[in-house]
Design goal:
single chain, 242 residues, alpha/beta, TIM Barrel, 6-stranded parallel β-sheet, 3-stranded parallel β-sheet, globular, binds zinc ion
């Protein structure tokens, strides 16, 4: 089963930017079919939070889509909002420290949300990039404070901090690396140094095409079906209880 955990859907709006063109449920399903992707994790974009659309998508296609709840922890009632959407069936927390203006290592801001994820037994998935807001060491900081919660490290903190992302994944069994944006070279290094059990397929659709990500993983797996199967679906199926 091919499962990709990191993608975005939204309703188009005339905002004069990339959000103008909607990325609908129908559209992602069509592209999943073209590439042979069985299931996809979806969340809203940080720029225009609409968790209700994600709930609708998951309810309409529970065999194809599972949703993460995007939370801006700086907004009032962040904890109550997270509980509300987890109660509605969303399967994890999504964070975007850079776009929402905080640091992932901010315990006062994030500990209450992570504790809720621990209570519900769902993973924490955060954007990880080349900026200070979401450096791999912050993921490690949280992962060590909440050893029972699983953390999905978005983009493997590509491009600048892949080496540090690999390092913290080596040191912490509850950190998983996601493949989007990461160069083939980094995915190969992660397989070698962390192992295929803690790497998960991520296209970050519509930023990329499912076929490209699958090809990248295929090449990185270098003919090893077991490695390919784990990264392209088995690991996230286990993490999300799909
Ligand atoms: Zn993304």
């Amino acid at each position: 089963m091919i499962i990709d955990h990191h993608n975005h859907i939204w309703v188009g709006e005339q905002a004069g930017g990339f959000l103008d063109e909607g990325m609908s449920v129908e559209r992602i399903l069509r592209e999943m079919d073209v590439a042979g992707v069985d299931m996809a994790g979806v969340c809203t974009v940080a720029q225009a939070i609409n968790n209700d659309y994600v709930v609708e998508a998951q309810n309409a296609h529970p065999d194809r889509l599972f949703g993460f709840c995007m939370i801006n922890p700086r907004l009032p009632d962040a904890g109550a909002t997270l509980r509300h959407y987890l109660d509605k069936g969303l399967k994890g927390l999504k964070l975007h420290p850079r776009l929402h203006g905080y640091q992932l290592g901010d315990h006062a801001l994030l500990d209450p949300l992570i504790a809720i994820c621990g209570e519900y037994g769902v993973p924490v998935f955060s954007h990880g990039g080349s900026e200070e807001n979401d450096h791999p060491f912050y993921f490690e900081e949280l992962a060590r404070s909440f050893p029972k919660v699983r953390f999905l490290l978005g983009h493997m903190c590509a491009l600048n901090f892949c080496d540090d992302a690999i390092r913290v994944a080596q040191r912490n069994g509850n950190i998983y690396l996601d493949t989007s944006t990461a160069e083939l070279f980094s995915v190969k290094a992660a397989i070698k140094q962390v192992g295929a059990d803690r790497i998960v397929m991520s296209t970050d659709w519509p930023g990329n095409d499912f076929r490209m990500e699958l090809l990248k993983i295929q090449i990185a797996a270098d003919g090893n079906e077991d490695v390919f199967g784990k990264i392209a679906g088995e690991n996230i199926r286990r993490i999300m209880n799909l």
